[in-house]
Write a structure and sequence with these properties.
Layout: H1 12-19, H2 21-28, H3 38-48, H4 53-60, H5 65-70, H6 76-93
Helix pairs in contact: 3-4
Organism: Acrocarpospora macrocephala
GO molecular function, one term: DNA binding
Protein name: Tyr recombinase domain-containing protein
């Protein structure tokens, strides 16, 4: 997802050194946070923005959609929005007074 100054991929070691990763996460109290976690955050945010999963697969460099799907972690708001969209669809299809879905 990131490219270096010469256009190539940035290795995790370069990212660690360039960002002072270890010191920053320690100061923030997130010692458990790994650089690899960024490979989950970026695609998840892009998916939430509407980027199709087959495009995310290519961006992440995965060989299969199954791998890409494992990297996606929708938040509660995304799940709530999906239920709201389905409720709106059902009410226009059948009855405005039909069942409304909610997250439990």
């Amino acid at each position: 997802m990131f490219t270096g100054p010469r256009g190539g991929r940035i290795t995790t070691a370069v990212l660690r050194d360039a960002t002072h990763w270890d010191e920053v996460v320690s100061r923030l109290g997130y010692e458990h946070l790994r650089r690899h976690d960024l490979r989950h955050t970026g695609p998840t945010w892009m998916a939430d923005a509407g980027v199709p999963v087959h495009v995310l697969r290519k961006i992440a460099g995965h060989g299969s959609l199954t791998t890409t799907q494992r990297y996606l972690h929708p938040d509660a708001r995304s799940i709530t929005n999906a239920g709201t969209a389905l409720s709106a669809h059902l009410s226009t299809r059948w009855s405005p007074n039909g069942p409304q879905l909610r997250v439990v």
